[in-house]
Amino acid sequence: MTDHLFTLHGDVLAAMRRGPKPFAKLVLALSEDEEAVDTRLSHFRDRVLAADPGDGLIALWHRTLTTWDLVEQADWSAAPARTEARRSHTYDRLGFGAGLRKALDSAVPVFKEPGPTVISKEFVSWYSRDAAAARSFYWTAYERLLRRKGWPDAAVSGLDEASHAVVERLSDPTRPEAYGARGLVVGYVQSGKTANFTGVTAKAIDAGYRLVIVLGGTLNLLRGQTQRRLDMELIGQENILRGADPADPDSLVGIDYQEDADWPEKFVSHGGRPSALGAFDIERLTTRDDDYKSLLNGIRALEFEKQARTEPLYAPANLHHAAARVMVVKKNKSVLDKLIKDLKKIGPILSEIPALIIDDESDQASVNTTDPKKWEDGKVARTAINGQISQLLGLLPRAQYVGYTATPFANVFVDPGDGEDIFPRDFLISLPRPAGYMGVQDFHDLDTDEGSAEETHIRGIYEETGDRLREALDAFVLTGALKLYRADRGVPEGPFRHHTMLVHESVRMAEHTALALRINSMWHRAAYTSRQGHERLADLLASDFHRFADDGLPMPESYDKLRSYVSRARQLINAGGTPVLVVNGDTERDYDQPDLDFERTPNVWKILVGGTKLSRGFTIEGLTVTYYRRTTQQADTLMQMGRWFGFRPGYRDLVRLYIGREEPLGKTKTVDLYEAFEAICRDEETFRAQLTRYATLVDGKPQVTPAQIPPLVSQHLSWIKPSARNKMFNAELVEIRSPGQWVEPTAYPVRAEELRGNVEAWGAALGALDRTPVTLRCAAAETGRDDSYEAVLGTIDHSTLVGILWDLKWSVPGQFTPHLQSLVSAGETGDGIDDWLVIAPQQTSGRRVEANVLGYGPLSMARRTRRRGDLFGAISEPKHRGVALRIAGALKGSGDPLVESLVRERRGVVVLYPLVEAEPRLGPDGTIDPGDVVMAFCLVAPASATAGQRNLVRFRAIDSSKGDFAVIDREGGRA
User: Fold this and answer.
1) Kind of pairing, strands 458-461 and 499-504?
2) What's the number of CA atoms in the CB half-sphere (13 Å) around residue 391?
3) What is the pLDDT of residues 131-140, one digit of tens each?
4) How far apart are CA 106 and CA 118, in angstroms?
5) CA distance 425 to 706
6) What predicted TM-score, i.e. pTM, was given to this entire model?
7) Residues 421-466: pLDDT tens digits?
8) Distance from C-alpha of 920 to C-alpha of 932, rounded to nearest angstrom
């Protein structure tokens, strides 16, 4: 039976592709006689209220409303994206009444998850939503494929938004003057960056880019994976077949993918040759198995047919009729040499070709790592791949360069003064954490000392625990059995197709071989079919996996119900006679193992032993147990080894990381690798958070440009550098304004005399505290928390606080100095700070420790440890933050009359945390030596201090001739 309402609404919404319009008018214009009843909005409202979960009409409106919610620049609304106000304006434009609005909001809630963060130079607008909609052949096909694969509407709309943000910052391909934009897109490790650059490629080709070069890793395995992905999801069946008859076996000889299990069903189909459908074809210059060797059909492969022969290729009359060329090229010197030599033969036409270079894992091989001190006569010397990329950009003056990485530090440290290099001078875009992604927050307790993430997923390897390798093998077998158990009980088994364990101890290939032999021997001695083996697995199930099981997923009550699945898991892991694969080396044959091919092998259930080659770009499907003990002193290298990050649908509660907590570094030092990962995670999260803060335009202009980003990079562990080279910057970060933001310094001194001096500096604040504790409570809708605690309170004026902060000593002075400067500036410019409420939280448990400090008190002493060198981990307790944020005006209400009585428009809040690092030594009268106390604090400047919309950061150029550029002196001396 025809669903007239669905058909009618589909026609109406198709007429609104550029934004909402009066719905009733379009309905009357487009409805047929038999659809008269469907034109009433009351009928639509009733349908929405009664709809089943799979109702096509609801899906249609979900897709449309979410798209409108996410549009950054909306013609019909000045309200920000992702807000109730934007949705309300959309309804106004549609002409919907209160009843229908309520029904739709219930069925399609406003999508409020954060979008991409953009740091950008000002750019000329050319790629509007209207322009994108007018030419969208390949993007539309890609979008349909993603929906067919089960992507939710919000995910598709988010990808649309993020890819649009990239393409609009490229140069207009029809622009007469040649300009090559340089940009960087930052994702998360194993978080789906390929989907973003596939979307960018689709939109760029639609817009007029006619040569796309994807630099796809340093191995043909990785290059081939990228080629297959683009062929499957973008280029499509018809462009691969190029007119060959799929029903004629003879015509398919030499055609890619004829033996691929996913051909043709999972490859996008355009419904015919695109050129015959009014669009244009894509010609592949590389194939799944063949990297770039030479231009297929010679130089003619890049001879574009022009409709208007006297006009250049980039003229619209020519550009939109010409076929696009796509190649996926390995980052290999000989391969890129061949490409460059062939391009040089082509001649002047190169200057007319709008080109796009996508650099996957752009911080690997692409960055110039030569030592400037060794350059002759000041002439830049380049590493091989960096030099070849520079040559490509020089040969193609209309080429746009977009790098993709999860570890951006090497890229943002590229010298922005080197005009031929790949510094992202035009834009830097940070992608949001995808829904369902298992990342930093799932393995590290960044904002609390409660330890739930660590307790669930981390299994530390200490000297006292032994190496725990057999336990890790047992966990691998057990989790495989649990996946099979869940698949038999209705959990989608697609994510369980592959089940892997990663063992990463060393970069030495000889050690990999020895380790693989040891694991193989341990496997055969594990006796998984014996009573002893089953008892061991039963104990592990009870002591570990039962405790942390996801209540929403099947979990056997006893080991007996899992026993048969253990047998099947063991068989799958041991298939082929060995459970272990060694993956290392620099040749393709090391990776061309059938048991390692996640695309063509039905089930890869193996233990993978390897080093660097398993830590970069190579996606280990089904990774559940990781055994990691390798040290490195570069943050980006360490982060790329975090293969345990990714999507783990149906088994995220089973993921375990066995990691060294006392690993040797050098001759005398040991390091905690889990702590090291937490430190770089904090660096990256801080980097992303700062980008988000500074992305807001002020008076329509950027607060910071990409060239000013490097000084914002932090470093939480002294022995881990952000990237491989030591760098200093000519642009000095002077001031960070944080109105309404929780600021939590962690770099307190170690020496007793400096600690004592800090406590004495706080004397005026301690003296202002009332001795009578009060109970503070905050139940704020914005935080979703309802917290209360006891504290003593006092008030000091702004100048007193600034005087205190000026006198403090720090282990890392630069951590707090820019914040202090903002408070000084606020006092000098009258920016809205009168006084500060001082809060000293008091513990109430029977085990609390109290002491008198400099005659003040008693005050509760909090116990904290330095978790990263001289730096503490979390200082504050989350329950203390709401009250402070409310009093400073960052939250709208607390629900507590006492707290509300403390609110002042021009008042900030300081929360004091007297800390001890060991059992305190108290005198007979309860006093404590100030040299044993770390007087830590957190503060929130009043939100009202944002008045005037001044920039949140301020820089000072050390060399004023360089303007606002962050020019690098790599060896530490300032330029």
Assistant:
1) unpaired
2) 18
3) 888 899 999 9
4) 31
5) 6
6) 0.75
7) 677 889 989 898 888 888 877 888 776 555 688 999 999 999 999 9
8) 8
